[in-house]
Write a structure and sequence with these properties.
Oligomer: single chain
Distance between the termini: 15 Å
Order of helices and strands: HHEEEHEHHEEEEEHEEEHEEHEHEH
Bound molecules: nickel (II) ion
Helix content: 25-40%
CATH architecture of the largest domain: 3-Layer(aba) Sandwich
Number of helices: 10
Structural class: alpha/beta
Strand order of the largest sheet: 1-2-4-3-5-16-6-15
CATH class of the largest domain: Alpha Beta
Radius of gyration: 24 Å
């Protein structure tokens, strides 16, 4: 593709204002009422068609080319986090205890810009065949927003053939776009293990089954599941984030509770870890004469990029930022509910290099807004390239 789609600087200025307003008034998942209102206001001001689907928060919009054709979706997430902002920015959060600490305000503005640019192309003499669906998804941080969008039926109704999304990445050098085929982000599983022993006096342990000792061995041994059940070439993390037991120094309690999370980069590893973790827990507690209840819940699948879409995305990014600024994306075991869409249709999620010192979810997190313009343009390039390839 040789055509350039460029966001005029006046549009960029307006979008940065929109982003800063969103940043000042962050709302956590499923409470994005004002955020939704601001997105609607921007879309309406620029004549972009909104779709009427039952969503309590979040917005669906569509840009139709002059000719009939396939449909591709572009997705932003819009929610914030329960974090007290410490950036000291002039447009820092005005809402106590809530912050856009993952840059979803930036994502929202990027996709608003993409929608406006796509609308301009659609209305021009060089219009396209097909439809671009713009998804402003709520509640990514809660891991339920993508499913809420799927539940509306909009992807089915529009026969969406592919979905594109991005995340700012402070670890990626400013100005770079990171694209990668295959696994990019981790699955998210959570577990809760209740170890039941026999309580008693701390000085006569022979008459007890000490659940703290059993649970401590579980904490240590779970790391062996990672190191001995999974290929060292696969990426897996098991983290115990909570360990609760006991009420007094001289009492062996009756139970101990261990809770944590499992992250895998490869879907195949996810199955292995779940099975081996459960076997390890049950066999270990049995060896000590204790019992255990295990709750194990899969919250998000691995985010795996479609190879052909990743290729198209890399080419589109190169058209905007130059091939020298398109790099292989570094995977992370953080989770992302964009992966939920990919269970139903091909998707590609890419990194936008915002090169800032603080990582996601940090109280001093920030993005470099200068990447807004190119991100909007990359989305439009990629969406139009996909429509062209599938007409
Ligand atoms: Ni995020």
């Amino acid at each position: 593709m040789t055509t350039q789609y460029t966001l005029p600087s006046a549009w960029v200025d307006e979008l940065i204002e929109v982003r800063r307003t969103l940043h000042q008034y962050p709302e956590v998942g499923l409470e994005e009422v004002e955020t939704t209102r601001r997105i609607v206001a921007y879309l309406d001001a620029h004549g972009i068609e909104r779709l009427d689907y039952p969503l309590s928060t979040g917005v669906l919009a569509v840009v139709r080319g002059r000719h009939r054709g396939p449909c591709v979706a572009v997705r932003a997430d819009i929610d914030a986090l329960p974090i007290e902002e410490q950036t000291g920015l002039p447009y820092a959060s005005k809402i106590a205890g809530t912050m856009h600490a993952c840059g979803h305000d930036f994502h929202t503005a990027c996709v608003l810009g993409a929608a406006r640019l796509a609308k301009q192309v659609a209305d021009s003499a060089s219009s396209f065949a097909g439809t671009i669906l713009f998804v402003f998804q709520p509640a990514e941080e809660l891991g339920v927003g993508a499913q809420a969008i799927l539940d509306t039926g909009v992807l089915r109704d529009f026969q969406v053939g592919a979905i594109l999304g991005e995340h700012n990445n402070p670890l990626l050098e400013f100005g770079k776009i990171g694209v990668k085929a295959g696994p990019l982000m981790g699955s998210v599983d959570e577990f809760r293990i209740v170890v039941r022993g026999v309580g008693g006096h701390a000085a006569v342990p022979q008459f007890t089954v000490d659940p703290i000792l059993v649970a401590a061995n579980l904490v240590a041994g779970l790391q062996h599941v990672v190191s001995r059940a999974v290929s060292p070439l696969d990426s897996v993390v098991v983290t115990v984030g909570m360990f609760h037991a006991g009420t007094a120094r001289n009492v062996i309690p009756g139970e101990a509770v261990v809770e944590g999370t499992v992250r895998c980069l490869q879907p195949s590893a996810q199955d292995v870890v779940e099975q081996r973790l459960k076997e390890f827990v049950l066999n270990t507690v049995q060896a000590y004469g204790a019992t255990a209840d295990i709750e194990y819940e899969r919250q998000l699948p691995c985010l795996v990029n479609d190879a052909r879409l990743a290729q198209l995305m890399a080419e589109s990014a190169a058209a905007v930022v130059g091939a020298q600024n398109v790099v292989e994306a570094e995977p992370t075991l953080a989770g992302e509910d964009f992966a939920v869409y990919q269970q139903h249709l091909p998707g590609c999620f890419f990194w936008v290099g915002t090169g800032k010192p603080h990582g996601w979810h940090h109280p001093s997190f920030d993005v470099d807004e200068r990447m807004l313009k190119v991100t909007s343009e990359v989305f439009v390039h990629a969406a139009l390239a996909w429509l062209e390839a599938h007409r």
